[in-house]
Q: What sequence folds into this?
């Protein structure tokens, strides 16, 4: 009897493990607390130490910036005497995360704005980073990590990746904090990244089930209101952490995304097709044109001319008729279309035709 009970317990645990939805997603990954957001920063700076790959002398703002910097350092120099081959003017951008404290470091992106050939080996000089309000929130400085190369001469060049953009991991120090405090009031407002009525309803149900109280209420497809219990207001951080760690299965519309430029097709799992017959055949037209010389007989008054000789060949591949039953899954669709030897570009044409026939129960997005 004991062995039988233990076997049932083991089977129950196994079924619970297997039945746990693999596609479950944490609330923190699909929704964010209103007001908790990052802030964009931007600044203008100079990258020095380049091996002759910096801006040319025709880039006047680089020359002026270098002269102004030298004067602030106590060195007076004429603009006509400055060469900027080893210097490049750049724009520095960064994102200041929410709750960033003074002294924390953030990553920065450095992009050339002049005619520099490469930023490889350069170092960014001290660059203030400002927010939309004009205040300085961080200061960036340090060597660049470009991850690219560009070499060449007058006849040929070799380039790998993009040499005029680089990053400085942890290259900026936060000097000013963005004022924000969690509201110790009675409500929390969450915003969904992808608004959906089904997803926000599942979120509310998961929160209410976990806390065993009707705390969450969906306002619309993109916002959720959560009531903070009295006993949790003194421990608001713990309450938010336990709330955001809950997992749900987000829902989304059935959608097919196609990119005709690259031949890429991405289909969601909820895509369904009504009963439809598909036949697809390619028509190939090959035109070959050769020039032939027509030369007159000796002692005749004719002229030598070039006569074109055109040959046309038309071939059409055999189209296999495939019937797809109503309600087939995405795997059945892929298997059926692969059976007729359809290429990615053929699939795009087939899906567009099925959509026009009214048999495709999904939204088609063409990039």
A:
């Amino acid at each position: 009897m004991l062995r039988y009970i233990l076997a049932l317990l083991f089977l129950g645990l196994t079924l619970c493990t297997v039945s746990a939805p693999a596609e479950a997603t944490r609330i923190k990954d699909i929704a964010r607390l209103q007001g908790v957001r990052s802030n964009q920063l931007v600044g203008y700076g100079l990258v020095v130490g380049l091996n002759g790959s910096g801006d040319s002398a025709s880039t006047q703002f680089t020359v002026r910036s270098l002269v102004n910097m030298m004067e602030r350092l106590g060195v007076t120099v004429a603009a006509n005497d400055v060469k900027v081959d080893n210097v490049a003017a750049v724009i520095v951008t960064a994102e200041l995360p929410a709750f960033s404290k003074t002294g924390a470091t953030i990553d920065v992106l450095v992009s050339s704005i002049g005619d520099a050939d490469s930023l490889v080996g350069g170092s960014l000089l001290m660059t203030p980073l400002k927010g939309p309000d004009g205040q300085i929130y961080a200061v960036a400085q340090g060597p660049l990590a470009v991850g690219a190369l560009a070499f060449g001469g007058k006849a040929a060049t070799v380039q790998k990746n993009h040499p005029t953009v680089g990053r400085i991991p942890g290259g900026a120090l936060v000097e000013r904090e963005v004022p924000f405090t969690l509201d110790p009031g009675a409500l929390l407002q969450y915003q969904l990244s992808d608004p959906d009525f089904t997803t926000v309803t599942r979120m509310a149900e998961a929160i209410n089930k976990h806390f065993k109280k009707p705390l969450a209420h969906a306002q619309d497809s993109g916002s959720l209101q959560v009531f903070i219990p009295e006993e949790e207001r003194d421990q608001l951080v713990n309450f938010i952490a336990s709330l955001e760690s809950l997992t749900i299965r987000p829902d989304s519309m059935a959608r097919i995304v196609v990119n005709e430029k690259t031949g890429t097709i991405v289909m969601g799992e909820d895509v369904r097709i009504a009963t439809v017959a598909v036949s697809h055949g390619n028509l190939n037209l090959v035109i070959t044109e050769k020039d032939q010389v027509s030369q007159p007989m000796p002692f005749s008054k004719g002229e030598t001319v070039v006569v074109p000789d055109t040959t046309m060949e038309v071939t059409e591949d055999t189209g296999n008729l495939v019937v797809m039953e109503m309600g087939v899954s995405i795997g059945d669709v892929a298997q059926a279309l692969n059976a007729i030897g359809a290429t990615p570009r053929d699939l795009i044409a087939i899906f567009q035709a099925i959509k026009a026939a009214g048999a495709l129960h999904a939204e088609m997005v063409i990039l």
